[in-house]
Amino acid sequence: MRPIPDGFTQTLTLMVTDEMTVDFGELGAVHPVYATYWMAKHFEEAGRKIILPFLEDGEGGIGSQVEVIHTGPALPGMTVTVTATFTGQAGRRIHASMRAVTELGDEIGHGSTTQAVLPQTRIDANFEALRARWASRGVGESNP
Question: The pTM is what?
Answer without folding.
Answer: 0.92
